[in-house]
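[job 0412] stage=fold_complex status=start
inputs:
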Amino acid sequence: MPEAIGFVGMGIMGVPMALNLVKAGFDVTVTNRTIEKCKPLADAGATVAESPEDISKRTPIIVTMLTGPQAVDQALFGEDGAAAGLGKGKLVINMSSVPPSYSKDLARRVGNYGASFIDAPVSGSKKPAEDGTLVILAGGEADQVERATPYFEAMGKKTIHCGPAGSGSHMKMSINLLLGSMLSGLAEMLAFGEKGGLSREVMLNVVLAGPLSNELFAMKRDLLASNEYTPQFPAKHMAKDLKFALDTAHETGAWAPATHLAAQLYRMLVAADRGDEDFSAVFDVLRGAL
Amino acid sequence: MPEAIGFVGMGIMGVPMALNLVKAGFDVTVTNRTIEKCKPLADAGATVAESPEDISKRTPIIVTMLTGPQAVDQALFGEDGAAAGLGKGKLVINMSSVPPSYSKDLARRVGNYGASFIDAPVSGSKKPAEDGTLVILAGGEADQVERATPYFEAMGKKTIHCGPAGSGSHMKMSINLLLGSMLSGLAEMLAFGEKGGLSREVMLNVVLAGPLSNELFAMKRDLLASNEYTPQFPAKHMAKDLKFALDTAHETGAWAPATHLAAQLYRMLVAADRGDEDFSAVFDVLRGAL
Amino acid sequence: MPEAIGFVGMGIMGVPMALNLVKAGFDVTVTNRTIEKCKPLADAGATVAESPEDISKRTPIIVTMLTGPQAVDQALFGEDGAAAGLGKGKLVINMSSVPPSYSKDLARRVGNYGASFIDAPVSGSKKPAEDGTLVILAGGEADQVERATPYFEAMGKKTIHCGPAGSGSHMKMSINLLLGSMLSGLAEMLAFGEKGGLSREVMLNVVLAGPLSNELFAMKRDLLASNEYTPQFPAKHMAKDLKFALDTAHETGAWAPATHLAAQLYRMLVAADRGDEDFSAVFDVLRGAL
Amino acid sequence: MPEAIGFVGMGIMGVPMALNLVKAGFDVTVTNRTIEKCKPLADAGATVAESPEDISKRTPIIVTMLTGPQAVDQALFGEDGAAAGLGKGKLVINMSSVPPSYSKDLARRVGNYGASFIDAPVSGSKKPAEDGTLVILAGGEADQVERATPYFEAMGKKTIHCGPAGSGSHMKMSINLLLGSMLSGLAEMLAFGEKGGLSREVMLNVVLAGPLSNELFAMKRDLLASNEYTPQFPAKHMAKDLKFALDTAHETGAWAPATHLAAQLYRMLVAADRGDEDFSAVFDVLRGAL
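[job 0412] stage=fold_complex status=done
writing structure:
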């Protein structure tokens, strides 16, 4: 019989992810700072706990899916935090997106209680979370990742073991860095072409018909064609992620010139009070229409 | 009955492209500076002419597929050049890759003879040329592009009318600029990830499993994984293309920061005497292994 | 009669600065974590205190000259910290180099005790500290800067009131950013010239004979000419300062492209284990001799 | 008795330079496409010739001071060009600013006539030309540079022998590259400081009081303080010079990242129709006020 699992954080991502665990037949206990947000899970058959501490006393595996380091710290080590219930045999899985240096530190602090740790940020947002098609980027000991795999399979379509604790976060950051530079690269190409008299619609057709075509570009096509940047992933989040990537480059000694460039471009959007628009608005920076 | 077509330039691209015209049933006349290279076409049923001048006197449509501006100039305006046979009703189609400013100038000079002009560089190399799956990027008057379309359909899978004369070349350059920045972006991501302890194989798996996946990255996967950069598209050609793009940015006032960056990176390969390797060798620049 | 002054931090800078206060006839009390380092001051006639707390109880003005935020925090708010003696009428002057955001926060925390605050980092190192020729970059209320001016005049040749608290630190960071980009700019010019066959000695002569000549370039001439980068200001410190500048650019929305570039160049030195050399070693990065 | 000298090009620079030769007692013959512009020289005692050919038949040394490669080509190799009078023992000195690759080519072409060649662009503009305080950057054979030195001494305060033919032009370009990056570096520092609340006047004071102070910054102080960029050296010329520098970097394999950056910044001014303002207007680019 599979181990019971606890889930802290009933946000946009947490609710569908936990629901998929319930649907897969696992014994799921959930909690959230605003406890009302647990209702969809209660309706689906999950147990609702008062606090992370409460969860960690009941279940051997505890997932956190929260907004960032501060919220994770609060959930694990704050008042009523999960740490109170940690010990040998317990496994903490942080699926929140956090910097790799924080993940490594978290692994150490959880380890101090005798418990195991996996960092497992996801690639994909609300829709894939609902559909159970997330890609899960896991960092930790191989046997613990294996232990977590049945749960990951309920939430995602693919689990990739990236290496020791912290590797999941580093992989997520690496992907985001490529995301940022690919989209600003496309925007630059469109701006360059327009200066030479080309129509952006025709350029998008050509790119999407050839070997450079990819889902990201297809997804952004209408936003770029219309200059209406309805937020799917806000520019301010990209700016923040790239800032974290620069911090990491500084720590590890990676060169990262395109990341430096992209960080500046998305920051210019934020500085122009357009950080809430989709990050494809970087097109306006590059065509001089800020 | 379709118009007869002439084809100047029996190189790696020219031979298969002209063969596809013959196979499609067109009346094809070919020539080449080294006349022996016309043999496969003669064998297939094409007429062989002595010179471009000879061609332009026989056929209303003349294609040039040569190594660059100098060779095109020679073929059109040199001794025995096609210009001698140009006049009202004739159509010159330059499919060689050349800078947009050269294409515009060429349109003007061909126009001086009363003839029409299309610039139509292709996206795709030897294999697609053989398979007739090139993408043809055409610039010129709409009626002339329509006139040329049956021939383009024999050589390619798709023809895109990009705008007036010069637009095809500008489109080709825009695509190459994106090609250069996307591949150096992937290389940077891999170098960044490795500094954080990730395996490049795992990273390539993750990228190719997600929304950023594209044919270019898939094609370069083994080269990047092995650091054996068997040339598909040599770095020195990318360096040259990006230099032309910077020239064009200077002329048109486009900003193009990522193109400036990529131009430097590929140039560093050339400066390190590695310009003959595939342009994916830019990975070695970014991981500090030059 | 002038107010008595306390001085916390008897390091390479602190000792000569405090000695100049004694020589100017002020009533000076000093302390240091390792109390023995106060000996030169005791010999010169200064009072030695046991702790920062001890100092702040005796003197209305307290200077801190320490290695960074952590040491300053310890000196002011740690056990035996100066905060215990703070109150209305007291003035804390932090002359240590710290990020502007830390300075602003420090002003607020000192203000919570009813005391006043100036941040006053210096431009210049050991020699100017001994000669009393430092330039003092002061941030704070005008009347408090005026109150501190007699003491600044004993330690430096010039005091510049940069604005409210935090402005001194921001000015210091701005100057360092220019320092970093000017020197890497000179290095790039030399590398560019050498590729064209010019002698670096001749280039340095030309630069130093013309309108671009400045003390920094003159000071680095021999290091650049010889490729022997005896540390005057280690590359790792420049890399750190530029990283702080990028953090600040991210916070304030400044663009700062040359700072991004310089940050990468100096970081490459650190990544190549050459962070202890003088920052003029950036020349080796730019001439491809890392 | 010194050799007679001819001077082609009576522009803003040429007139005062040739006048200084006359004042120094040399036997000077001048010419200009618009012959009326030779009047000040005739008044001062110089001989006026009809054409460059006429000059080269009279004088063993011929100076050209013209607007660029095209004008130099016309003066030397055009109709009535100086080439007709060239031969063994003659010396051509081109003082016009041209790309190094052009200078090297020119040396070869002049050499074909058996004559010697020096490229000798100057550092300094109208005022130093009048005052005879130019810095002369000479490239060529040592004995020829020695031969030219008495004339250079009449026109400038300093002659620097930079190496073989072409070296003068490469030195000029290297200096201009540093000029461009230093001024955009200062502009970036001011923009960065302003975002942190500093006054630009105070920042300029601090920079000009310290080891980074130089004549260039002093000269641009008022323009930067007022955002009134009265042209001393127009941005479009800097943009063009940096474009030539990028061309040269591409040819020689120099890296030149700051030059790439500066080229983009000045080009943005030109693209915004502000190329006629002083190049210090790059401040408006960096503070987001384009």
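[job 0412] summary: Chain D has two domains: 5-164, 171-286.
[job 0412] exit 0
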